[in-house]
Write a structure and sequence with these properties.
Strand order of the largest sheet: 1-2
Radius of gyration: 18 Å
Helix content: 55-70%
Shape: globular
Number of domains: 1
Oligomer: single chain
Order of helices and strands: HHHHHHHEEHHH
Distance between the termini: 35 Å
CATH class: Mainly Alpha
Structural class: mainly alpha
Amino acid sequence: MTPFVSEIVGTFLLMVLGCGVNANVSLQKTYGNGSGWIVITTGWAFAVYTGVVVAGPYSGAHINPAVSIGLAVAGEFPWTEVPSYILAQFIGAMFAALCVWLVHKDHFNATEDGDTKRGVFCTAPAIPNTFINLFSEVLGTFVLVFSVLYFTDAVLSTENVIIGLGSLGALPVALIVWGIGLSLGGATGYAINPARDLGPRIVHALLPLKNKGNSGWGYAWIPVVGPILGASIAAWIALAL
């Protein structure tokens, strides 16, 4: 795959499993209905792992505009490649949201609450507070990108033979995302990824959902600006250390 295609595919896999676990836990008459926050955070961690395993060898598996921007700020990724990566990430995220809707169409119809339906696609604050909600997204993304900047390859090299972890090398980022969700995700739903939130939010606005309510556009800037700020701060601090 080219890096562009890889970012589409990787982000699609991330989002189809991530929004999928949201749907499974939140929508009526699914087998996973009401199974809770542990299931959601675990599902998102496995979603990250799946996306990174597939996209990693071809694009580095950013699958997140904040990661692309953070790596560029840190000088580890060319700025000229950032727009194409972000475009690919949004394409993958939006197509995934559409697929999740199709799979769960009957369950969307069985669910009355519009906020619950919107929550399958995008995030919302548990308690609205603009500054604190923004800080939550900044901090969560800071943890993600700062950690990514300190990743090292787990390999053993001996007599010109390199032994790596293969697909298990994608596990650290999944564990970090899981930790962020468990520890910091309860305030805003931890978007920590502009494409993850804005792409599906646009799809939500376009879909013919029954009683869907509004798409939460008044909040929509926070899961975009917060992750970009958090990633940039992580890069600046990493450069200064």
